[in-house]
Amino acid sequence: MHIGRTTxxxxxxxxxxxxxxxxxALLIDVAAAVKTISGLVGKGALSGFAGALDxxxxxxxxxxxxxxxxxxxxxxxxxxxxxxxxMASEEMDDPYRxxxxxxxxxxxxxxxxxxxxxxxxxxxxxxTIFSILQRSTAGDAENVDYLQSGCEQLAAGxxxxxxxxxxxxxxxxxxxxxxxDRESGNFILTHPDIRVPEETREFAINTSNERFWEPPVxxxxxxxxxxKTGIRGADFNMRWIASMVAxxxxxxxxxxxxxxxxxxxxxxxxxxxxxxxxxxxxxxxIEQAGGAASTGRQRIAEVxxxxxxxxxxxxxxxxxxxxxxxxxxxxxxxxADRPFVSPLFAERSLFRD
Length: 353
Ligand code: F6P
Fold this sequence. Notes:
Layout: H1 8-16, H2 21-42, E1 52-56, E2 62-64, H3 65-78, E3 84-89, E4 107-115, E5 126-134, E6 155-161, E7 165-170, E8 176-181, E9 186-191, E10 202-204, H4 215-226, E11 237-238, H5 244-254, E12 257-260, E13 273-274, H6 275-288, E14 292-294, E15 311-312, E16 314-317, H7 319-334
Parallel strand pairs: 3-4, 10-11, 10-12
Antiparallel strand pairs: 1-2, 4-5, 5-6, 6-7, 7-8, 8-9, 12-16, 13-15, 14-16
Bound molecules: 6-O-phosphono-beta-D-fructofuranose.
């Protein structure tokens, strides 16, 4: 029993009173969708929805039945309330138009309905990520309305479907965590005002991509791996769950740094993760918790989007480590990390043949 504790609805109503009360109603619908998805994902193989479809999404990734179903769950839970001008998702090539029978509002909901969905087959935590933007007036959103930088987000959050289902949320006043009480069906505020520790000795990166990384990231990871014997003078721990939601959740709980940096594996892709519905909302949650989120060369929240599904390099977590990586990128870009070699005495110089 949680009599007297703060439920998500109470928290949201209090935080969005006045000008943003319609956004509060929208967030409560998002939470309802999350409960539906939690039920679905929690059934595992018993749901009958395991496995892949024949289709691919706009990213060219094979869609799973759960990707499509969870996308539907969010559309159906959120389309009716009159707060939205439109929705966009990883699973839809183009933004979703609110059906004629429902009123329109001024908010835009952008989401990844089931991030890390391939992990659901192996019973590892997956999640839903969402971001809320607004247009100046109520009415059907045009594609261009969605192309706002992360700084413009009014709210962002994720749900993590792990041993417990949690919803972590920010409306621009800190980052707060709610745990789903499966008996009452309520999200209860269990982690108010989460803070990311500034210092950390834990990093997360897919090291199988090491040969494709840029030198500043190779330098950083090599230094962490050198541990006590290297210039960092301390041993580091490494984690890789391959589920961004689980990774960000760990960082919010105990610090750390997460990297899916720029690499040269596929020159057409400047990173793996999607700006609008992965990087931006996570960046807002991390920054609101006192951490930092960067591409290595720019604050993620300041990247001007060009397309809805664009990718971006992501480095986020404990502030001092993100800043160190930004410094390494700058030193690399300016050549400051390479010792000066005089052309006069280089191997092929005026004085040698
Ligand atoms: O974008 C989907 C995602 O599953 C993220 O949640 C995760 O961080 C990343 O991809 C994992 O990538 P990889 O398969 O390269 O480890």
